Amino acid sequence: VVVARIQKTPCYGNCPVFEAKVFSNGLVLFDGKENTDRLGLHEAYMLQSQMDSLLTQATAIDFFKMNANYPANGKQLYDLPSTILFVKQEDQEKEITNNHGAPKGLKAYEALFLDMLNRLDWRSVDEVD
After folding, report:
1. Distance between CA 16 and CA 34 in Å, rounded?
2. Pairing mode of beta strands 92-98, 69-70
3. In which element (H, E) is residue 39 found?
4. Residue ranges of the chain with pLDDT lower than 70?
5. Tell me: the pLDDT tens digits for 63-73?
6. pLDDT value for 129
7. What number of other Cβ atoms are within 10 A of residue 93's Cβ?
8. Cβ–Cβ under 8 Å, residues 38 and 30
9. What pLDDT was estimated at residue 64?
10. Which of 37, 39, 66, 118 could pair covalently with 32 via S-S, beta carbons 3.0-4.6 A apart?
11. DSSP string spanning 79-112?
12. Of 16, 14, 46, 15, which is closest to residue 29 (Cα–Cα)?
């Protein structure tokens, strides 16, 4: 079961494009598409304490009470990348797409999630034919 996910979409520059999923058993899958140090499928494991921290921080910023899209008026800037965050915690789950104009708490949460991913011990997953 996926408990958290972060995805970065393309922009008109060299923005990283990827998706990372955190599963309830601690497995983290990273699929790097463009402009990232890890291209292709990679895996790592997150400690239970790290997963707890990620979910606790979501609650602390009122993630489940935030708008589903930023900017709230829907006027995206298409030359900017979007960050799509998903969190599932007990009986709650929510996905938020941030193009720009998100609250500071959401931006800080994105940064925390990315920092946690960067600290993991990644290994490439060989593709099966």
Report:
1. 6
2. parallel
3. none
4. 127-129
5. 999 999 999 99
6. 44
7. 12
8. yes
9. 97
10. 39
11. TS--EEEEEEETTEEEEEEESS---HHHHHHHHH
12. 46
DSSP helix/strand/coil, 2: strand
Residue 21 has a pLDDT of 98
Contacts of 50 (CB under 8 A, 6+ apart): 116
User: H-helix or E-strand containing 28?
Assistant: strand 27-34
- What value does the mean pLDDT of the chain take? 95
Beta-bridge partner residues of 20: 6, 30
Q: pLDDT tens for residues 85-111?
A: 999 999 999 999 999 999 999 999 999
Q: What is the pLDDT of residue 78?
A: 86
User: What is the enclosing helix (H) or strand (E) of 24?
Assistant: none
What is the three-class DSSP state of 73? coil
DSSP of 41-72: EEEEE--HHHHHHHHHHHHHTTGGGS-SEEST
Tokens read off for 66? 């935030």
Residue tagged 């993630």 (tokens): 63
